[in-house]
């Protein structure tokens, strides 16, 4: 969540001049923020508008997209400005808001999506009879409430609400050693371990299904075309899972690695901490691509939204989308 010591306090080096490169940095940052907000907004609108997307898994994707949307609106602009200026320029109150708004729901949503997919594949009859959109919605609301309470309690216990001080040019509220280890375990190690174990199991189940389908095809009809299609499906599933895990870990691991190292050395470069934290937030930009844009129904629903075809009659029932298929 946040770096667990105060050794990063250092004065600002001063803002760079308004050079073309400096302006280009802000333009690039604005483009990333816009992409994050618009991408996640499209996912939110798709799930909310089209009734055929009101499935348990898509409720989790909706929660993920909404949390990433909030990151794009309130966290990333501050983070990019901090990175470009090499200095926190917004003051104490905004720093406190930034620290509180930075509770990371994405990792919990990703873990829930992994659990949802694992149950759906390993026990489809139980999943179809017990899992409902309302039940998953209740679960996600509970996750949001617990996450907000956890972040508030973490900052309060460490004195960030009662005796909050901002170092010159740095907005990194302190965590004690015990709180830091606890936070690292709760928001990174445990969810990532669960997610990776579940996705390994999902991959194994998908592979067994592909082998069974391929064997069945050989018994019924020795068709090379169908056999090749099955093998392509297996490789496609493996590739999607690989991209999913690799991108997620690519965004999260550098920051938490720096956080751990920072607990054992007297000082770590401010720029390195801020840069890895920026990469952490960029996961909110990648998530709409990984979890939604690769899905045919989401792609078509977004096209309908962007072309304003959802204004047609009964568009919420996806009749227009079905015709597009």
From TrEMBL:
Coiled-coil intervals: none
Keywords: Cell membrane, G-protein coupled receptor, Membrane, Receptor, Transducer, Transmembrane, Transmembrane helix
Gene3D superfamilies: Rhodopsin 7-helix transmembrane proteins (1.20.1070.10)
Annotated ranges, domain G-protein coupled receptors family 1 profile: 39-291
SMART domains reported for this sequence: 7TM_GPCR_Srsx
Localization (cell): Cell membrane
Cited SUPFAM superfamilies: Family A G protein-coupled receptor-like
Pfam families: 7tm_1
Main location: membrane
InterPro entries xrefs: GPCR_Rhodpsn, GPCR_Rhodpsn_7TM, TAAR
Gene Ontology MF, one: trace-amine receptor activity
Membrane topology designation: Multi-pass membrane protein
Transmembrane segments: 23-47, 59-84, 96-115, 136-157, 177-200, 240-265, 271-294
GO cellular-component term (any): plasma membrane
Protein family (similarity comment): Belongs to the G-protein coupled receptor 1 family.
Protein name as catalogued: G-protein coupled receptors family 1 profile domain-containing protein
């Amino acid at each position: 969540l946040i770096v667990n010591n105060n050794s990063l306090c250092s004065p600002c080096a001063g803002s760079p001049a308004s050079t073309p490169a400096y302006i280009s940095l802000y333009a690039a940052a604005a483009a990333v923020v816009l992409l994050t907000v618009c991408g996640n907004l499209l996912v939110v609108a798709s799930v909310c508008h089209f009734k055929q997307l009101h499935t348990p898994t898509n409720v989790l994707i909706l929660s993920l997209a909404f949390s990433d949307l909030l990151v794009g609106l309130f966290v990333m602009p501050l983070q990019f400005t901090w990175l470009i200026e090499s200095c926190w320029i917004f003051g104490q109150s905004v720093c406190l808001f930034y620290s509180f708004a930075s509770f990371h729901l994405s990792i919990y949503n990703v873990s829930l999506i992994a659990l949802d997919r694992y149950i759906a594949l390993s026990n489809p009859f139980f999943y179809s009879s017990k899992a409902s959109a309302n039940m998953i919605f209740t679960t996600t609301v509970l996750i949001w409430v617990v996450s907000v309470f956890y972040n508030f309690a973490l900052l309060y216990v460490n004195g960030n609400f009662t005796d909050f001080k901002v170092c010159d040019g740095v907005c990194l509220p302190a965590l004690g050693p015990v709180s830091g280890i606890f936070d690292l375990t709760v928001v990174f190690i445990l969810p990532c371990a669960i997610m990776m174990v579940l996705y390994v199991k999902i991959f194994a189940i998908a592979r067994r299904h592909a082998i069974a389908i391929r064997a069945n095809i050989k018994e019924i009809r020795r068709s090379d075309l169908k056999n090749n299609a099955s093998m392509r499906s297996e490789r496609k599933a493996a590739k999607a899972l690989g991209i999913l895990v690799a991108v997620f870990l690519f965004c999260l691991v550098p920051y938490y690695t720096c956080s751990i190292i920072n607990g054992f050395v007297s000082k770590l470069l401010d720029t390195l901490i801020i840069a890895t934290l920026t990469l952490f937030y960029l996961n909110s930009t990648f998530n709409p691509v990984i979890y939604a844009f690769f899905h045919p129904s989401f792609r078509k629903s977004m096209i309908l939204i962007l072309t304003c075809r959802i204004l047609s009659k009964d568009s919420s029932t996806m009749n227009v989308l079905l015709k597009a298929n």
